[in-house]
Design a protein that fits this description.
heterodimer; A: 4 strands; B: Sulfite Reductase Hemoprotein, domain 2; 18 helices; 37% helix; sulfite reductase (ferredoxin) activity (chain B); Nit/Sulf_reduc_fer-like_dom_sf (chain B); 4Fe-4S (chain B); NO2/SO3_Rdtase_4Fe4S_prot (chain B); metal-binding (chain B)
Chain lengths: 93, 551
């Protein structure tokens, strides 16, 4: 399964494409795509140039949890720097 | 300190206005990310893991209190209350919003600063010795030359699209604090046998995936020819450097493929064509630039300060700091103060807005309004009266900037690594923190003496691991962080590239591995020998055995 992620254009913060078609900061609310569907969704998302920078796909398992080689990188993106727990999404709103 | 003239001010203001327009066009979707990326990089704006990053140029690291306060203000108003000092003597902010960047750049321009040439395939911020203008070791102050290079290279039309980035460093002392032999061009100001002052020119040094110690292509370049000679080197590189493969595009690859003599001949041929054609600066311009760096008006003081001596006698902590963090000043009664930005367990080079303001206040009051960022991610107050050292230390201590560890095992260079950087394979900062914590006892650190540990989170080597006495390189092993150790590197005048010790260590093992090396050194050193000297005397083998011994 795949999730579409990128950095929000205006401020660079990490976002995921949600099931409702909106960008969300919460990985848990991201839409999970089967590999084929991911390609189409990714191509559509790439057209939203005024919303997002540096778009790409990441691997998740069937339960929507990060998996694969980039798990550490993506878990740090999702949460924030491991050396500054007061920064990034892990710090809360 | 450099000064902007009307041209500089106009140039920077126009660039900010231009970038503001580009940002607006990007935000409206008129520009795609692919179109915008090279434009933002030309203005120091990167996109990292969590957010944009803005790298601000600090010419050869030198700052006034006004500039430092502006950086503190930017950290507070537009970022998350801190900045990160880099190995090019710059500062970077990790969380600016793209929409705010034009305003940040306007604010920087108010204090003669910008983010130009902090990214992209151009000539980057020229670096120098952080003791410049303060140490008796130097033949001359290297900063005027760094400034000439800065003015020459800024928006140089011929060199705005080089095969790859290009880094220059200048020193004027035998003790190299600027890692000049690991630069695309390193310049060492020295006197020849006739007593004339000029440059030894190293070309093609570098770290990254293909490290080289820069060879000398010219032993002595009369200093009036600085710019024409640099221009000749850049011309040869611009025309003949590889553009087909990013990993083979740095000048070091060209120097290596042509051979040192072959490359030097190409440069000499080019130089002979341009050397008296008006590239070099006229005498009055050279004098004008030198005048910006005139020595402050030092008082006539005795070499010994009674106040300082008394404080040393009564405060052990201060005495320790005075032993580890001070360096000899050229003027009697003054000291060079090193401010460690490496608190035990902290993040190397991270400095808060409050700390920036405190350092600005201290520099204004006690160091002729000067401070300097070092390539080892620390700060220097170049001219402090010995009588004032205790007051300076106390003020630094109040903001947690009085760690007594300059050049010691916990004074570690670490790249941002996977905690911030989108290129990294592994984290670097947590390893630096854990090593510093392992060796946190200051007496033990001091007993170990100079020991340079440098950590990179990927092969690009931003953490200078090749130049570490002990270097640590993070590698990704099937999604797990592994760390390879290199031994015997040096970024100083005895420059050397560390040798790989053997198989890598997991994140859990790597600090123990470092401790084994340090223990071996401690048990086998002679007299006051540094780690590096013991390693050089005994060779790699016993250190490898210590590292991989089954016990």
């Amino acid at each position: 399964m795949k999730i579409i992620t990128g950095n929000r254009l205006s401020d660079g913060l990490v976002v995921f494409l949600g099931s409702d078609g909106q960008w969300t900061p919460a990985l848990e609310r991201a839409a999970n795509f089967a590999d084929d569907a991911a390609k189409t969704a990714f191509a559509d998302a790439q057209l939203r140039v005024e919303e997002i920078a540096d778009l790409y796909l990441i691997d998740v398992d069937d339960a929507g949890a990060l998996t694969g080689r980039e798990t550490l990188r993506e878990s740090i993106r999702k949460a924030g720097p491991t050396v500054r727990l007061d920064l990034g999404y892990q710090a809360g709103a | 300190m450099y000064r902007y003239d009307e041209f500089d001010a106009t140039l920077v203001a126009e660039r900010v206005a231009q970038f503001r327009g580009q940002v607006n066009r990007r935000l409206s979707g008129e520009l795609t990310e692919d179109q915008f990326k090279p434009l933002r990089l030309m203005n120091g704006v990167y996109l990292q893991l969590h957010a944009y990053m803005l790298r601000v140029a600090i010419p050869y690291g030198t700052l006034t209190s006004q500039k430092m306060r502006k950086l503190a203000h930017i950290a507070r108003k537009y970022d998350k209350g801190y900045g990160h000092l880099t190995t090019r003597q710059n500062i970077q902010f990790n969380w600016p919003a793209l929409v705010d960047v034009p305003d940040i750049l306007d604010e920087l321009a108010e204090v003669e600063m910008h983010a130009i040439q902090t990214s992209g395939n151009c000539i980057r911020n020229t670096t120098s010795d952080q003791y410049a203008g303060a140490t008796a070791e130097e033949v001359e102050d290297p900063r005027p030359y760094a400034e000439m290079i800065r003015q020459w290279s800024t928006f140089h039309p011929e060199f705005s699209y080089l095969p790859r980035k290009f880094k220059i460093a200048v020193t004027a002392a035998d003790r190299d604090r600027a890692a000049v032999k690991f630069h695309d061009i390193g310049l060492r100001i020295h006197k020849n046998d006739a007593g004339e002052v000029g440059f030894e020119v190293y070309v093609g040094g570098g770290l990254g995936r293909t490290p080289f110690v820069g060879p000398t292509i010219r032993e002595f370049l009369p200093k009036e020819y600085l710019l024409s000679y640099l221009e000749a080197i850049l011309r040869v590189y611009n025309q003949q450097g590889r553009r087909d493969n990013k990993f083979k595009a740095r000048i070091k690859i060209l120097v290596n493929s042509e051979g040192v003599d072959g490359f030097a001949n190409l440069v000499e041929t080019e130089w002979n064509q341009i050397k008296n054609s008006g590239v070099d600066l006229p005498r009055e311009e050279i004098d004008r630039i030198h005048a910006y760096f005139a020595s402050p008006k030092f008082e006539n003081l005795s070499g010994e300060s009674k106040t300082h001596k008394a404080k040393i006698a009564e405060d052990k902590e201060f005495a320790r700091w005075a032993r580890t963090n001070l360096a000899e000043h050229k003027t009697s009664g003054y000291s060079i103060v090193n401010i460690s930005v490496k608190p035990i367990g902290g993040i190397p080079g991270d400095i808060s807005d409050i700390q920036m303001e405190a350092v600005a206040d201290i520099a204004e009051r006690f160091s002729f309004d000067e401070m300097c960022v070092t390539h080892e991610q620390n700060l220097v107050l170049p001219h402090v009266k010995k009588d004032d050292l205790f007051a300076v230390w106390s003020a630094l201590k109040a903001v947690d900037l009085a760690t007594a560890n300059i050049g010691l095992v916990s004074d570690i260079i670490a790249c941002p690594g996977l905690d911030y950087c989108s290129l990294a394979n592994t984290r670097s900062i947590p390893i630096a923190q854990r090593i510093a914590e392992r060796f946190s006892d200051f007496q033990k650190q001091e007993d170990l003496g100079e020991l340079k540990i440098k950590i990179s989170g990927c092969i690009n080597a931003c953490g200078h691991h090749h130049a570490g006495h002990i270097g640590i390189l993070g590698v990704d092993k099937k999604g797990e962080e592994f760390y390879q150790i290199t031994l015997g590197g040096s970024g100083a005048e005895d420059a050397a590239i560390g040798e790989i010790a053997g198989r890598g260590f997991s994140s859990d093992q790597v600090v123990d591995a470092v401790e084994k090396l340090v223990d071996y050194y401690k048990n086998n050193r002679q007299d006051k020998e540094r780690f590096l000297d013991t390693y050089r005397r005994l060779g790699a083998q016993p250190f490898k055995e210590a590292l991989y011994d089954a016990a």
